[in-house]
Amino acid sequence: MRWTGRSRTRRRRWRGVLAALALTLAGCGTSRPVLQPGELPFHTTDPRGITLHWRLDQSADAAVAEGVLEAGRLERYSQITVELDGIDASGAVVSSGRTIATPRDFAGTTPWPFTARLRPTGGETRFVVRVSDILPKVTPGR
Q: 66 and 97 in contact (C-beta within 8 Å)?
């Protein structure tokens, strides 16, 4: 069978599309490893039974708390707001950042990852991570 100019062009176009798709999928597979509670140095327990495991990375421009949260019944929630607060020597909040943690799986039972950032004001002597809001999961018919 002889290839015409038009069929060669189509074949080249499809090869290009397939190559781009393969590169895109390969890039998706190189995600960061999931943090595990035991690997993180700081642990905070909320009065509602949610435990936050986290680490803090600081620079002159930002403070970043990265971690996971877990609870006995995480599947009851659809999202949890995590807050990173910069506290000064008198105990006042001088900087703050928020993020929303959501489940990684359909059951919502594995630890949920979060990353909260803030821009330091310069007066912080310590940083705390806490749960500021919880949104319960709404199930139809209830």
A: no
